[in-house]
Structure formats: C-alpha cells, structure tokens
Amino acid sequence: MKESFRLFFGLSVFYFLVAIIYWQLGGEILGITALTLSGGLAGLIGFYLWYSIKHQGGILPEDNVEGEIADSAGDLGFYSPHSWWPLPVALSMMACGLGLIVGWWMTLIGVGALLISVVGFVTEYEKPEVSAH
Known about the structure:
Structural class: mainly alpha
Helix content: 55-70%
Number of helices: 4
Order of helices and strands: HHHH
C-alpha cells in the first residue's frame, strides 16, 4: 500500500500528459475535458492516500505481514438506532426535488421543511444543561 499514492500520482501525470497531447493533435473539447478531469481525480485520490499514510506514521496496517483485519478498523461513528429524523429529511428533500418540476412554491416549502428537519436531526441528542440549584 505504500506505493498506492505513487500509482495514482503517476496516473494523474499520465492523464494530464495525454490531455495535452490530445489537445495539440486537435482533439475535441469533450475528450480534453474528460482526460483533464480524470487526471484531477487521480491526483485527488493520490493526495488522499499520501495524506493518510503520512498521518499514520508511514506504515499502514495492510503493510504488516502479521497484521489482523481488526488492525485497520477505525472509529465508525455513532448511528442512532431509533431515530425518526431521516424520514422527514428524506421527505423534505423529495419535496424540494418535486418542487423543481411542479413549481417554485413547493421548492420553498421543501427547503423550509428541510431546514427544520436537518436541525432536528443534528440536535437530536443535544440535551440542555440542567442546573443543580
């Protein structure tokens, strides 16, 4: 895995070089755009892999021959098992999308409902401080 970021950086350079050559040979704009975006995406993945390796001390769990699967397990976060808030968020988003077809008034209603439901979803486990007076 140490070489993975080098592979993607190499792909990025390759795509950019091919895009320049394709542009000089008179290629159409769609192909030039596709090759340039492919180079950017490969560079983005290469940067992420390099950054991850650098911040893990240079040795990934995948590089350890004696490593276990659990060595690479990280924090997965907290997911509420009994939350109803994803349902209003999804319905509000559906109203926003449907409003683009039906009319702007429905989009405004959907955006309002989306703001309320996202705030409810984010602050679901926020409890106010109870003062012990």
